[in-house]
Amino acid sequence: MASSTSISLLFLLSFLLLATSRAENASNGSDLDEELAFLAAEESKEQSHVNSHHDQYRDFENYEDLEQGGEFHHGEHEGGEYREEEPQLPIVDEKDVAVLTKDNFTEFVGNNSFAMVEFYAPWCGACQALAPEYAAAATELKGVAALAKIDATEEGDLAQKYEIQGFPTVFLFVDGEMPKTYEGERTKDGIVTWMKKKASPSIHNITTVEEAERVLSAEPKVVLAFLDSLVGSESAELAAASRLEDDLSFYQTTSPDIAKLFEIETEVKRPALVLLKKEEEKLARFDGNFTKAALSEFVSANKVPLVINFTREGASLIFENSVKNQLILFATANESEKHLPTLREVAKSFKGKFVFVYVQMDNEDYGEAVSGFFGVTGTAPKVLVYTGNEDMRKFILDGELTVNNIKTLAEDFLADKLKPFYKSDPVPETNDGDVKIIVGNNFDEIVLDESKDVLLEIYAPWCGYCQSFEPIYNKLGKYLKGIDSLVVAKMDGTTNEHPRAKADGFPTILFFPGGNKSFDPITVDVDRTVVELYKFLKKHASVPFKLAKPSATPEQVITPKKADEKTESDGAKDEL
Fold it and tell me: How far apart are the C-alpha atoms of 550 and 547, rounded to whole Å?
């Protein structure tokens, strides 16, 4: 009997617990519905027309964008909104265009000496216009080059690896090596002409002194190999290396008299190779193994000036260089004559390790913008190391601009001994607004506070999308201000930096959950409305919270309505 009673009590207790749990869940669901309805009604009173699509490719996303003068240069995502419905497209015969994914990409570019690959997006109008031209070029180029396409919206890892920032982006891979960007005409004839030129013989024989003199006089930079034979394995290695370079000419000779004109001693051991430039550093001698890889590395490191002036013309030498680390001198025009010789002297010791760059700080076209990007202010000359746009770390020289000090900066960077510098506005004296102001120097204190869930908008003052989004974000901050566990914040991404706050465009919205600040933040990829952002926070917040709605004023009291009448809040609820 006692056993039966115990079982009955246990069954009753389980039933009561289950019923209580269901009631609590129903109550929570009801509370969320009520909160969302309230927010929707509030939004409907002051509707903000904001494009719900995200501006992933901003006008000036990073330092490299200055190469194009701040203009977006690859796709059609420049300023317009996307159309969700596109007209019916004509059928294109793409039988000779390979379709690539992560599974066959490496094999395709490795197995074809010349592989052209288009990264596209299905919704992109410019890609759709290119499709028939690209397909026709693929057919005509059969046997010369292989053409392929890859849907960047499906193959995100590959798109990220190759830093795709717009559509279409077309690359040429030669022997599977680092690709070159195709920036020619988007027509069949343009692609075919460019591709055939790339695939044509890339080294030229020099057999007469007259021809050698003409080459030296006419060409600004040239590579010459002094060989025992114009055919064979050494010539083949030279040809393979030459295909990786498209901005200088490669020559070969067996004549000692011709070699001497190119400053190669006649008794030198062959094969020998030099690179000549009409610049301050006129001659570079190759002293490695005569292989494609070693030759290519030598040419890449020596073909550029010791120090590249940052201009529109010189920008491609910086951004398209296989060497990503940059050592940059910032100086005004008046100061440059004093410091450029110092930088050139340092550059001789670090070929292939850094690209050395000079930025004229007082140049209105680009110098001021580049200086601002790096947080360089004032007119005093400065030197820093920059790791490139992938991780965007900067290391500033603290000391006099001498050869020894700059060499030490470079050596310490390569030995990973330096602490990076990040831009920051001054920490605000008061920070009591609905939306907290984040700068580089208070980021750790507020955003990385483990006790708080933090929603952070990274914006740019000039960004139209950010300006449209501002009133919506401010309203969200107002509604959530009284919740102690939750912070709504914003940071000017043009004047502040932090290694944990990487923007893919403006605005970028990131969520840092409490108790998990050692992990990467969550990118908020929802429509930019108060309701959708609130739903996101309710789902991801580490500390549950409830909206504190203001008390109704007499004007807000709802009067009875007729059966066929609808209020604004009803419409908002219907939308939810």
Answer: 9
Q: What is the pLDDT of residues 370-414, one digit of tens each?
A: 998 888 989 999 999 999 876 789 999 999 999 999 999 999 999
Please name the residues in contact with 26: beta carbons below 8 A apart, sequence gap of 6 or more. none
pLDDT bracket for residue 246 (50, 70, 90): confident
Residue tagged active-site, from 466, 472, 503, 537: 466
For the chain, the average pLDDT equals: 83
Closest CA to 511 of 487, 483, 547: 487
Catalytic residue among 124, 476, 509, 531: 124
Q: Judge whether 141 counts as a catalytic residue.
A: no
pLDDT digits (tens, 9 = 90+) for 150-171: 999 999 899 989 988 889 999 9
Task: Given the residues 463, 476, 483, 509, select the one marked as catalytic.
Answer: 463
pTM of the model: 0.61
Question: Do the beta carbons of residue 119 and residue 152 sit within 8 Å?
Answer: yes
Task: Report the distance separating Cα 211 and Cα 217, nearest Å.
Answer: 10
Contact 305, 279 (CB under 8 A): yes
Residue written as tokens 């940052």? 310
Do residues 320 and 310 touch, judged by C-beta distance below 8 A? no
Q: Is 463 a catalytic residue?
A: yes
Q: Is 127 a catalytic residue?
A: yes
Name the catalytic one among 116, 127, 323, 486: 127
